[in-house]
Design a protein that fits this description.
Elements: E1 3-6, H1 12-22, E2 30-33, E3 55-62, H2 72-88, E4 94-97, E5 101-104, E6 107-119, E7 122-132, H3 148-152, H4 158-179, H5 182-190, E8 198-202, E9 208-216, E10 222-225, E11 230-233, E12 239-240
Parallel strand pairs: 1-2
Antiparallel strand pairs: 2-3, 3-7, 4-5, 5-6, 6-7, 8-9, 8-12, 9-10, 10-11
Helix pairs in contact: 2-4, 2-5
Length: about 240
């Protein structure tokens, strides 16, 4: 495993993307940092992490062989890799909150940000950003957030955790190459937070409604059963409330 370990950087995703401009890197090349000062989440959100407490990494996946229209499959593969890693450590009650948060019970412990580099209308490579709360115990101003140490009651070796996570990423990309996406989508849905349970959602205009999550389409849209019909929603079209 090729890896660059930084004391601090603004964003590991940005660092890896810049590295790609001038350097030929191997598949599953890793950038990790003790302190990420401008960590990014979905839709412009920030990822907050205490210095040297958590795992903040970016992983390069070259030629993922995934159609541009099906790029959500990358979220599926990465989410399952994280879940399997956490299961190895016996983290309980794991779930995937659409589209890409990993929960233990209802507490967020990991988030994903995938940025694809497109060439000739194909995904040339993917920069997979993962933030995983490991040994941080206090999350000021944040609700429904926890860490592996808080849940398990003991500190985790981050180097061992990183190796296990990369191993699982490699396993899931190999599974996709062998079996295709259908079985992986089914596995992803088996972990889907609030699936088949009445849940409260919020539209961008702050209107609330009750619906039932029935699954996720191959294009990454959330299928929600409403009073009149089952409808599909993109990330920016609604928010699932805890």
């Amino acid at each position: 495993m090729q890896i660059i370990k930084l004391n601090a950087t603004g964003s590991t995703n940005n660092y890896l993307k810049q590295l790609l401009v001038d350097t030929t890197l191997e598949d599953f090349f890793v950038v990790t940092t003790k302190h990420q000062t401008k960590g990014k989440g979905q839709v412009g959100a920030e990822w907050h992490s205490k210095k040297n407490k958590n795992l903040t990494i970016s992983v390069l996946k070259k030629n993922p062989s995934i159609r541009l229209s099906h790029q959500f499959l990358l979220n599926v593969l990465v989410s399952l890799s994280i879940v399997k890693t956490l299961e190895h450590y016996k983290v309980p009650k794991l779930a995937i909150k659409w589209p890409n948060d990993i929960l233990s019970d209802h507490y967020k412990i990991s988030g994903i940000l995938i940025e694809n580099i497109i060439k000739s209308n194909k995904i040339d490579c993917s920069v997979i950003g993962i933030g995983l709360n490991v040994n941080q115990e206090v999350f000021e101003g944040l609700q429904n957030v926890s860490s592996m140490k808080s849940i398990l009651g003991s500190s985790i070796d981050k180097n061992e955790l990183l190796c296990k996570l990369i191993e699982n990423l490699q396993i899931y990309f190999e599974l996709y190459a062998k079996k295709g996406e259908k079985s992986l989508n089914a596995e992803y849905e088996s972990y889907l937070f609030r699936k088949d349970k009445p849940s409260t959602f919020e539209f961008p205009d702050q209107t609330l409604f009750t619906g039932i999550i029935r699954g996720v389409t191959e294009f990454g849209k959330l299928c929600v059963q409403m009073e009149d019909a089952t409808k599909e929603f993109n990330l920016k079209e609604l928010k699932l409330l805890y």
